[in-house]
Amino acid sequence: MCGIIGYTGGKAAAKIIYEGLKRLEYRGYDSAGISVLCDSEIRTVKRLGRVSALGGFLGKMHGSTGIGHTRWATHGKPSDENAHPHNSGMFSIVHNGIIENYSQLKSEYLLGESFLSDTDSEVIVKLLNKFYDGDLPSSLARVCGLLRGSYALAVICAQFDGIAVAKRGSPVIIGYGENENFVASDLPALAGMCKNVAVLNDGDIALLTADGVAIFDENLQGVIREILPNPAKPADLELSGCPHYMLKEIREVPAAIERTCQAYAYVENSVKKALAGVDRVIITGCGTAYNSGLAAKRYIESFARIPAEAEIAGEFRYKNPVVTSRTAVIAVSQSGETADTVEAAELALSLGAKVIAVTNSPYSRLTRCADVVVPVEAGCEICVAATKSYSGQITALYMIARTLAGFSAQSSADRIAPFPALCAQTAEREDIDGLADMCARSYGTYFLGRDTDYAVAQEGSLKLKEVSYVPSEGYPAGELKHGTLALIDIRTVSVFIITRPDLAEKCSNAVEQVLSRKGKAAVITNVTEVAERFKDRAYVIEIPPCDEWLSPLVSSEVLQLLAYKTALLLDRDPDKPRNLAKSVTVE
Ligand code: M6R
User: Fold this and answer.
1) Alpha-carbon gap, residue 363 to 386, rounded angstroms
2) pLDDT grade, residue 587 (50/70/90)?
């Protein structure tokens, strides 16, 4: 949610920043901008639209220190004026986060100032210009002390050949190079640019020059933050011959499952320890991560017979949850930076729960607060729509549920073993196009299933609406007759997921109810009788027979491809759906 990057060293800063911004574009893509320091003067270019809109200006932006930003609008519509950087006097800043008290700050300290944008961020640079006393870290600390909300800030000043950085709530990584240093919101931006990184703590202020990095805590005492290897590789950012990251990442589902399964062996004992004596489990997350929690609830209750709930993180944190020291909270997040999920995890910790983080981001905020981290080894996920990370989450959550039920990681791995191959075959299916065509023409598409198939239905629906903008809902199949049936007519498509033989008959009744109302129906199933029954009346996609608990790995991949293909038919960009950003670090 907004990407920031900064460079100081001996090379042309604008080009490096431009490259970094392109890599960070998944964090926001409504406008972008760059400021560079050239002969003690700041030059800024910013434009509405994608980062590529800046490409033509790079030749004129000389200087070896600079900052850049790609925006996901919160305050103020997408426009040239609201794009970052924002400047005042000798300062230029980029900001990721939300300043909640910006109007109060304006009236308290900045009366009479004229503002060029409608953003909350411009207040920060005006305050810095007002309070600057010749010492950048202390002036920045003073301004930060006035801010309420979240921020990752990178600042350049005409009097200083370097970058000042401040952080609270929003993510910031410092990258260490040779005679050059970097700051960025996220690791992929720095892939191939520097080998080592450090993660700042909330309240930290950092000063970067070509020669070094100094970090201070909120009391301006010098501190050392651990220097860690940068795991992001340039290859992670390549499309590898695919037209879109979404397709590339769907093709990486098998590797995500395999690596997540292998990595679990290293944390099995810590998970066992954290779950000892637990009498209730809450799985929390947002969007896709919440949807994987819906499957996990079923796993935990079925395997371990322990009550489990899936809770949307933004609800959990505001509902005064019932949590005791015998509750385990599993916080699921691809990015590990989603504000609601991290806050939910922190709340659970403060109430005495054990918190297990399930995340694809090794240095994220979530990993730093949890008792135990279960890695999702999906690799960098660039497409805004989560695909391989969902499959990795399902794998990790399945293994956690089986640990709780007393099974060894090896026995779980044995069950998962056939799935990378099954998912590799699924990625190559060509029989989804017809259904994509039906969805693209539909007035609304509904996804229905029972139990784990219901969990997959929710995820299939989110994926379709997110990348194709076709209105879509997911329902438990049994709920159809309690209201949803009123929506069904010849213009709608209902997609049923039926992989549980014991529930096949009941779900088939729901398919009949749709067909009787002239609704179009599709059935994704590995139950032979179901495929036979509907082969002439519905669009049937048969998936291979497999372990019923793990069938979500295959059926969800079919739905990921369905969403991707539908988006292409409607001429949408599946990698960058409108209005969205990959990592939602604000509330
Ligand atoms: O990084 P997180 O897993 O915490 O992100 C949560 C949601 O924002 C995310 O899953 C979102 O719903 C995806 N765009 C869905 O494809």
Assistant:
1) 19
2) confident
The first and second tokens of residue 490, run together, are 């010849």
Number of domains the chain is built from: 3
Q: Are residues 42 and 137 in the same domain?
A: yes
Provide the pLDDT for residue 583. 78
Tell me which residue range forms the domain holding 344.
Answer: 238-417
Write the Ramachandran bin of 429: left for phi over 0, alpha for psi from -120 to 50, otherwise beta.
Answer: beta
* SS3 of residue 139 by DSSP: helix
Distance in Å, CA 444 to ligand 1 centroid: 22
Please tell me the distance from the alpha carbon of residue 399 to that of residue 381, in angstroms, as a whole number: 22
Rounded Cα gap, residues 109 and 104, in angstroms: 8
Split at pLDDT 50, 70, 90, the class of 236 is confident
Point out the ligand 1 atom lying closest to the alpha carbon of residue 580.
Answer: 14
**Ligand 1 pocket: which of 334, 364, 369, 459 to mutate (most atoms <8 Å of CB)?**
334
Q: Residue 116 is part of a domain; what is its CATH number?
A: 3.60.20.10
Q: Is 480 helix (H, G, I), strand (E, B) or coil?
A: helix
Same domain, 405 and 441: no
pTM check: above 0.85: yes
Of all protein residues, whose CA lies closest to atom 8 belonging to ligand 1?
287
* Ligand 1 binding pocket mutation candidate from 245, 283, 286 (most atoms within 8 A of CB): 286
Query: For the domain that residue 537 is a member of, what is the CATH number?
Result: 3.40.50.10490
Asked if residue 583 belongs to a domain, the reply is no
Of 75-79, 214-218, 347-351, 462-466, the poorest mean pLDDT is in 75-79
**ω before 85 within 30° of 0 (cis)?**
yes
Angstrom distance (rounded) from CA 368 to CA 357: 9
- The residue-averaged pLDDT of 411-426 equals 98
pLDDT in tens, 336-375: 999 999 999 999 999 999 999 999 999 999 999 999 999 9
- The one catalytic residue among 46, 388, 463, 582: 582
SS3 44: strand
